[in-house]
Amino acid sequence: MSRGMLWPSVAIGVASMSPAEAKERGNAKSKASETAAALREDLTIERRELSPGGCTLKAKPGSKVAIEHTGYIHSVPDEFHDDDLVGKLIDRNIDGEPLRVNLRSGKLIRGLDLALEGMCKGEQFSVIMPPHLAFDDPTMKFNWGDNGKNRPVPQGASLRYEVNVVDIEGGEVVPHEDFRAYHQFGLVILMVLAVSLFTFFRYRNKGVKSKSRQAAASAAKQQQQQQKKARKRA
């Protein structure tokens, strides 16, 4: 495959547009943000492997991610059906360098952008995306034909991307499992101490009140006896 087809990555859109187009695209992005959860349901994501250290950092909207990726044609409409098209490699990293891009910046095809949200640093996954989240996305401006950049797939084609999340900047920090366990254990200890202290002071107060009542009753009894003796002497 020629370098021209893969430079820049076909997963990246081109952001040269007029103010009116920018406003229209901004409105589209706002609407897309509101429906991100629904759009993710259109994706088929298979999470495969996580680094030995577990998940310590997750990608979120605005995070800058570095990924190793390969993109393939997953399916095409019947009128374009060709055994040479299905499974064809159409995208990959250039010169072995990770692709670095900010999520929700509008520069990455939405299917891949949405799939990366919530993924962990060091995680590997595959995603199958329908045409409206790939190269038929009306919210993206690819500028096919500029600088020899040709449309890599027929209209209506779905894609499959294999992705390795190399790095994440500005992601969501995920506490380590050991920390979570200690945190939960600490909460249990605090709850036990709180219940113990409550019980202790409750019964202590009951004991103080009981002694006070006994002392008051004893004093009243002594006073009554003294009054009886005084009446007898009188």
UniProtKB/TrEMBL annotation:
Domain PPIase FKBP-type intervals: 62-169
Gene Ontology MF annotations: peptidyl-prolyl cis-trans isomerase activity
Broad enzyme group: isomerase
Keyword Nuclease: no
Keywords: Isomerase, Membrane, Rotamase, Transmembrane, Transmembrane helix
Region (Disordered): 212-234
Annotated TM spans: 185-203
Highest taxon of source: Eukaryota
Biased composition (Low complexity): 213-227
Gene3D superfamilies on file: 3.10.50.40
Keyword Kinase in record: no
Catalytic reaction list: [protein]-peptidylproline (omega=180) = [protein]-peptidylproline (omega=0)
Name the UniProt record assigns to this protein: peptidylprolyl isomerase
